[in-house]
Amino acid sequence: MTKAAQPRLAVLISGRGSNLQAIIDACASGELPAQIALVISNNPDAAGLQRAERAGIVAVCIDHREFGSREAFDEALVSELRAHAVDLVILAGFMRILTSVLIEPYLGRMLNIHPSLLPRYPGLNTHQRALDAGDSEAGATVHFVTEQLDGGPPVLQASVPILPRDTADSLADRVAVQEHAIYPLAARWLVQGRLVLEGQYATLDGTAIPSTGIPYTPALE
Ligand code: GRF
């Protein structure tokens, strides 16, 4: 497939951008047959903006603090996405609660990665909550974005064991390695048209995905 024919992605970030980097690398290697048309950060200080610039990708900051409502902010996002003819939206540590203004036009075309074994621990501080609960495992989940916060149908889930001396930071580091494996893979399925949102659940190659997502193994293609 030529570059021009490849689906156009937007990656939305708020911070470090390590998942953005994984998507950049996967596009560069051909593992993810897509082009990143645009990176948007709501945070002018996001380190991920520099990653985009280093890769020669258009990167813009749309600061949510300059808008009077969540809807007005989302309208600005949608108009930027449309201006760049974006096909698919990848939320990668984008720390904003979204409204239907953004979600509806990209329903079935927008993924998020959440650092927990959903449906456990939607919201913040997921690793500390897993430690406090005495869980034996933690992980990350790629899911479709719907109006339910961290509640859209899961696609792909990776687990790591919780070790006796783990802190929230050590656990986050180990989970991040898995995030960087599962996000490009799930994005590839979406780009290839193999991953589809069908109302309350997702399908891969026409087969319903379990409610906690496909368990990740490195053999998955
Ligand atoms: C990741 O842990 C992701 O699961 C969550 O936010 C974090 C983003 O990290 N949604 P990074 O900015 O991609 O490094």
Briefly, what is this?
The chain has 221 residues and is α/β, with parallel strands linked by helices. The protein is built from 6 helices and 11 strands. The protein has one domain (3-216): Rossmann fold (3-Layer(aba) Sandwich).
What labels would you give this structure?
alpha/beta, binds 5-O-phosphono-beta-D-ribofuranosylamine, eight-stranded mixed β-sheet, Rossmann fold, 31% helix, 221 residues
Per CATH, the superfamily is Formyl transferase, N-terminal domain
Helix content: 25-40%
Overall pLDDT level? 97
- How many strands, what sense, and barrel or not for the largest sheet? 8 strands, mixed
Radius of gyration: 17 Å
Number of strands: 11
Ligand inventory reads: 5-O-phosphono-beta-D-ribofuranosylamine
Write down the secondary-structure element order.
Answer: EHEHEHEHEHEEHEEEE
Structure description:
This protein has 221 residues and is an alpha/beta fold. It has one domain: Rossmann fold (3-Layer(aba) Sandwich), CATH 3.40.50.170. Helices cover 31% and strands 24% of the residues. The protein has an 8-stranded mixed sheet with strand order 3-2-1-4-5-6-7-11, covered by helices on one side. Strands 8-9-10 form a 3-stranded antiparallel sheet. Helix 1 runs parallel beside helix 6 and helix 5 packs across helix 6. The chain binds 5-O-phosphono-beta-D-ribofuranosylamine. 5-O-phosphono-beta-D-ribofuranosylamine binds next to helix 1 and strand 5.
